[in-house]
Structure to design on (401 residues):
């Protein structure tokens, strides 16, 4: 099997923009496979062919394709001429030595000029396999599905299909900035937007040296892991401890969490605008913690002028946790750390923030100077996958975002 045939679903619906979506998917697949022995990635009549070299392993190639959004399904495929005898002979050759309880053939014609219809091809090829091997045909629950794809002057066949990650290709929906804590929720929120084609830039706030470095390290690990789905990421690491000390002097304890959050959003928004991002993303959920009552969410959200997305807003912790486990962020998120939001806050923070009261409290703070200083001093780290590894570049990009 020297090819992988990639099928996409949602892109097929994109009408006039389809070539552009396809171009992005092809480009993303090329990048995802860049360090493997892959000869070509090419669009081919409604699917994409990845041409493998002899040193490309199935595991490595599959691992990358499973992390490329826009892929609906994929299969390892072999090429033959457009001739039923040759096709059936090649399939039988590849099936030699294989035991199988039941099978069926699923055919698709990309070029309708082929003289037989798909059901006819299925019957012809299936009949030859049955005759040669004596296997039972089962159209409903076949143990083995032999896929046949007939193009204009070549055919492909494959055994079984794997699911891709779905979604839309990275880079087709613009950029967003996600506030990434070291917790369980925000990485899942970022993943949701990535899956819809957004490029996500991460912003993490820490209170080192008042608190440990743990949250920063977690944010870095999470950013590196999430980068495996979008190939290139940027993480802004913002020192928040001194700002919090100023908040403590000016704002009564119960109001601090909301004020911290509003400052985080202001800083994230400044970073977002400079980066050309069009929205902010958080992992907030109604009622999950005291800072996430409807009242508090409203007062927090009021400070943002960019759209603020909370993709997990109606999810239970259990559901979010299941997704975190599935995408692999969970083990990193549960490493103990100290989140800066709990610094200098009472055990019972205000649950019904009122905007005028919060705004009045904020007048005691040099907001613009705090925001400007935090953005200026933020450390910027870039991540790439493949060629995994982060590089601290302190405000300089090593590649165009
Ligand atoms: P998470 O698991 O995402 O940390 P959480 O349940 O702990 O969520 P909060 O601590 O109230 O919830 O945070 C709500 C949201 O605010 C987070 O999902 C994240 O988007 C943002 N946030 C909180 N703390 C930080 C931080 N230190 N750096 C960046 N963003 C943060
Ligand atoms: Mg948190």
């Amino acid at each position: 099997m020297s090819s992988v045939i990639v099928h996409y679903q949602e892109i097929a619906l994109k009408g006039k923009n389809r070539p552009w979506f396809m171009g992005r998917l092809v480009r993303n697949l090329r990048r995802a496979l860049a360090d493997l022995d892959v000869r070509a990635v090419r669009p081919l009549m409604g699917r994409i062919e990845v041409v493998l070299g002899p040193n490309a392993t199935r595991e490595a190639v599959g691992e990358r394709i499973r992390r490329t959004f826009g892929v609906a399904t994929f299969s390892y495929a072999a090429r033959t001429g457009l001739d039923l005898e040759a096709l059936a002979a090649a399939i039988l050759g590849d099936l030699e030595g294989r035991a199988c309880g039941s099978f069926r053939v699923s055919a698709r014609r990309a070029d309708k000029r082929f003289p037989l219809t798909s059901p006819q091809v299925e019957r012809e090829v299936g009949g030859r396999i049955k005759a040669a091997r004596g296997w039972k045909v089962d159209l409903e629950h076949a143990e083995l599905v032999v896929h046949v794809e007939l193009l204009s002057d070549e055919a492909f066949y494959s055994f079984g299909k794997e699911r891709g990650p779905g979604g839309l290709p990275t880079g087709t929906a613009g950029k967003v900035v996600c506030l990434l804590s070291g917790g369980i929720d925000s990485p899942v929120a970022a993943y949701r937007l990535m899956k819809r084609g957004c490029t996500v830039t991460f912003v993490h706030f820490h209170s080192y040296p008042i608190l440990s470095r743990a949250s920063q390290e977690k944010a870095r690990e999470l950013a590196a892991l999430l980068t495996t789905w979008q190939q290139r990421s940027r993480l802004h690491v913002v020192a928040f401890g001194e700002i919090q000390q100023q908040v403590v002097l000016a704002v009564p304890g119960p109001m601090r969490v909301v004020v911290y959050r509003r400052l985080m959003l202001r800083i994230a928004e400044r970073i977002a605008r400079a980066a050309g991002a069009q929205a902010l993303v958080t992992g907030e959920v109604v009622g999950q913690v005291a800072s996430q009552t409807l009242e508090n969410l409203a007062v927090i959200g009021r400070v943002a002028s960019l759209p603020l997305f909370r993709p997990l807003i109606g999810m239970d912790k259990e559901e979010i946790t299941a997704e975190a486990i599935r995408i692999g962020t969970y083990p990193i998120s549960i490493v103990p750390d100290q989140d800066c939001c709990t610094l200098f806050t009472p055990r019972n923070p205000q649950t019904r923030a009122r905007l005028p009261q919060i705004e009045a409290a904020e007048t005691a703070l040099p907001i613009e100077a705090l925001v400007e200083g935090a953005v200026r001093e933020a450390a910027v780290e870039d991540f790439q996958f493949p060629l995994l590894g982060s590089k601290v570049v302190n405000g300089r990009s090593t590649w165009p975002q």
About this structure: Residues 181, 183, 339 surround magnesium ion (ligand 2) (CB under 6 Å).
